[in-house]
Amino acid sequence: MKRAMLLILCFLYTSFAFAGEQQVTLSVPTMNCATCPITVKKALKRVDGVISADVSYKTKLAIVIFDDEKTEVASLIEATTNAGYPSKLGLSDTNE
Question: Which of 11, 24, 53, 80 is least enclosed by beta carbons within 10 angstroms?
Answer without folding.
Answer: 11
